[in-house]
């Protein structure tokens, strides 16, 4: 196994360098098999480190002194130097588990900086020398014992805190990537390692919901209560679980009334999803979701009249009336399916709703003609649809105005029921209501 030891070098007792400095350093070096030992002295103690190297006579022993005089009392400077040394070892093939740091000697700033650098690189083993103390509190020569410890609790908490930050910013996949491994192999304390499977279940639920894969999300199991206190405010509520379960329920297009209800839920969820895309500056995706929300509102209203835009009966009186008007104006008419039924796109659905004397038809027809809003129909030439470049705005404000208008339209369509639905759909944006 390729292993390395990093050791801070202090001054020791100037009158007893062999007993107070060299012998303890050699003891640490001798306990373990090392391919590389790196001595970390200050400018003051570099001469002692060089003398120890001469005593040991090993090409595998390197000196990496602090670059400037006086830095031994500057914790930031020490950290920067030690961090660079550890990174260098990682670059040439030493794994985190194969690097041990001994922070016994040196100033307090040096010791603290080496421990912090070790934690930053997830090194699992720290060591220091202890022993019997004299009247001055110094370890007595010859009584030194090597004590090894692990920063596992700090490392675990650091990783879990980072995962929680990802959740609060909506990066659920990033949180999964941090935790998606066997926690028992990390050397974490059992209480923290044991929480990881539950956290991963919750995260996978959010990942699937955020990508609109409701069936997968609804099938994922996770505990009712967060295993760690600080995760309680981002834990799925019963309302969130029911919301996803309702969206995952199989849709039967023949049940027109049920489809109308379902499409309202879906429109609310897509609106909230699009708001998160705006938050993350994914403007092109937000434009596509805005188009679909507007389209869903029209399709839902049409289902409320007992009609499906994907299979309209050609003998329906209002369908025939609209088809006649379109032909008279020379406008594009309905599409035709193989089974003889007719199809209608977003704008044609709005026109049919007008023919049906639907209360929302006028608003649906004029929605895309508001000068202060981005044109939703531009979605058709988006690079993600049929075009060759992005059509979304290059900043958030126009899209935020568009989404506020869509929010108002959804509420006009569904009233208080839609208001309640939007509250649940928006629960997934934890950045909007931080704990």
Number of strands: 8
Uncertain parts:
none
Principal-axis shape: elongated
Structural class: alpha/beta
Percent of residues in beta strands?
5-15%
Give the neighbour order of strands across the main sheet. Answer: 3-2-1-4-5-6
Mean pLDDT: 90
Q: Note the run of SSEs as H and E.
A: EHEHEHEHEEHHHHHHHHHEEHHH
N/C terminus separation? 45 Å
The portion of residues assigned to helices is 40-55%
Main β-sheet description: 6 strands, mixed
Which radius of gyration do the C-alpha atoms yield? 33 Å
Number of helices: 16
Can you tell me about this structure?
It contains 16 helices and 8 strands. Strand 7 and strand 8 form a beta hairpin. Helix 11 packs antiparallel against helix 12 and helix 12 crosses helix 16. 51% of the residues lie in helices and 8% in strands. It has 435 residues and is of the alpha/beta class. The longest helix is centred in the C-terminal third of the chain and has 30 residues. The strands form 2 sheets. The chain has a 6-stranded mixed β-sheet with strand order 3-2-1-4-5-6, with helices on both faces. It is elongated and about 110 Å long.
Distinctive features:
435 residues; alpha/beta; 6-stranded mixed sheet; 8 strands
Sequence-ordered SSE layout with sheet pairings:
Layout: E1 4-9, H1 17-30, E2 36-41, H2 46-56, E3 61-63, H3 75-91, E4 99-102, H4 108-120, E5 125-130, E6 145-149, H5 152-168, H6 172-179, H7 190-193, H8 196-210, H9 214-219, H10 238-248, H11 256-279, H12 283-304, H13 317-329, E7 335-336, E8 342-343, H14 346-355, H15 361-366, H16 396-425
Parallel strand pairs: 1-2, 1-4, 2-3, 4-5
Antiparallel strand pairs: 5-6, 7-8
């Amino acid at each position: 196994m390729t292993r390395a030891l990093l050791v801070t070098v202090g001054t020791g007792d100037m009158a007893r360098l062999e007993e107070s400095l060299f012998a303890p350093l050699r003891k640490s070096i001798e306990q373990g098999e090392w391919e590389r030992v790196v001595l970390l002295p200050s400018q003051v103690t570099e001469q002692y480190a060089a003398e120890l190297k001469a005593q040991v006579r090993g090409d595998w022993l390197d000196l990496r002194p602090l670059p400037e005089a006086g830095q031994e009392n500057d914790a930031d400077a020490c950290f920067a130097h030690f961090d660079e040394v550890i990174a260098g070892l990682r670059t040439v093939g030493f794994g985190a588990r194969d690097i041990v740091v001994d922070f016994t000697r040196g100033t307090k700033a040096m010791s603290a900086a080496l421990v912090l650098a070790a934690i930053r690189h997830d090194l699992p083993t720290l060591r220091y020398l202890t022993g019997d103390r004299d009247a001055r509190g110094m370890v007595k020569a010859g009584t030194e014992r090597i004590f090894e410890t692990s920063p596992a609790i700090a490392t675990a908490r650091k990783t879990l805190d980072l995962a929680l930050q990802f959740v609060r910013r909506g990066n659920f996949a990033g949180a999964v990537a941090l935790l998606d491994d066997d926690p028992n192999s990390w050397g974490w304390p059992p209480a923290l390692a044991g929480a990881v499977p539950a956290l991963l279940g919750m995260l996978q639920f959010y990942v699937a919901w955020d990508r609109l894969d409701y069936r997968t999300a609804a099938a994922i199991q996770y505990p009712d209560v967060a295993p760690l206190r600080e995760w309680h405010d981002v834990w799925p509520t019963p309302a969130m679980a029911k919301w996803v379960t309702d969206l995952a329920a199989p849709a039967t297009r023949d049940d027109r009334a049920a489809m109308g209800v379902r499409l309202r839920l879906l429109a609310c969820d897509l609106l909230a999803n699009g708001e998160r895309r705006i938050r993350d500056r994914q403007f092109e995706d937000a434009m596509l979701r805005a188009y679909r929300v507007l389209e869903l509102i029209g399709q839902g209203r049409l289902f409320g009249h007992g009609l499906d835009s994907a299979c309209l009966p050609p003998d329906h009186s209002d369908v025939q009336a609209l088809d006649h008007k379109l032909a008279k104006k020379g406008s594009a008419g309905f599409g035709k399916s193989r089974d003889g039924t007719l199809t209608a796109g977003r704008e044609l659905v709005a026109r049919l709703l007008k023919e049906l004397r639907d209360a929302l038809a006028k608003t649906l027809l004029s929605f895309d003609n508001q000068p202060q809003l981005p044109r939703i129909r531009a979605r058709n030439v988006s690079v993600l649809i049929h075009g060759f470049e992005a059509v979304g705005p290059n900043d958030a404000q126009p899209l935020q105005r568009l989404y506020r208008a869509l929010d108002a339209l959804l509420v006009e369509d569904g009233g208080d029921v839609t208001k309640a639905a939007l509250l649940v759909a928006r629960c997934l944006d934890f950045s909007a209501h931080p704990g």
